[in-house]
Amino acid sequence: MQKYLTIYYDLVNKIETKQWAESSMLPSEHELTEMYETSRETIRKALNLLAQEGYIQKVRGKGSVVIDVDKFDFPVSGIASFKEMERKLNLSTKTIVNELTLVEADHELKSKLQVKLHDPVWKVVRVREISKEKIILDKDYINHDIVPVLTKEICEDSIYHYLENDLQLHISFARKEIIVEKPTEEDQALLDLEGHSNIVVIKSYVYLDDASLFQYTESRHRPDKFRFTDFARRLKS
Predict the structure, then answer these.
(1) Do 67 and 224 form a contact (C-beta atoms < 8 A)?
(2) Residue 177: which of 137, 228, 128, 141 has the closest Cα?
(3) Is the dihedral of CA 73, 128, 134, 184 positive or negative?
(4) 156 in a domain, yes or no?
(5) Mean of pLDDT values over 142-167
(6) Residues 108 and 202 in one domain
(7) Where does this protein have coiled-coil stretches (predicted)?
(8) I want to staple 142 with a disulfide (CB 3.0 to 4.6 A). Which of 30, 110, 122, 201 is the partner?
(9) CA separation for the pair 172, 120 (Å, rounded)
(10) Is the residue at 236 inside a domain?
(11) Strand 133-143 and strand 213-221: pairing?
(12) Residue 26 burial (CB < 10 Å; 0-12/13-18/19+)?
């Protein structure tokens, strides 16, 4: 077995047996080089594999942090409000509404929401705080013709509850994309990124039961806190 794999498996064992606690920093590359009596290149190969397999997150300027194995399961295939997820996971959460405005649809929003240029669109920016850490930034754009009224109180509570119970709208399905990108200045300003150099973004196009598109959302997640899950079934051809 190549030496970096031997080191990798030894580091995995130390992490899984809690010799290094979740959220703690691994020894530096220099310290690991001395510990395993090997080259820095070999250590970097082992650390890169640890990162790929979800054991550590490399944090710029700090080193490698052991990832919390008790991540929050985020069901990619479902359509659930944050409040519903909060109840399911029994979490201590808070929603902070940073922006609630009516904006004119530019060319990008025109394409995403299938509205006319300059049509009014609700823009809602909310930070989701879980266990006193700001780890999700939700940016919602909602067709004003379908949802003529939104308030800060509704956005702090649950937009979907309001749509389904007050407006009697029937949310049916969504098309989703998942990408990983560098944090924006807005991400860095509003989230507790703790030095993480990537953000997991789920883009959702949400439709009513008459197949009308009413919402485009970007849900931006700190990568160390979530496990994105799905259920798949093989269909025979």
Answers:
(1) yes
(2) 228
(3) positive
(4) yes
(5) 96
(6) yes
(7) none
(8) 122
(9) 23
(10) no
(11) antiparallel
(12) buried
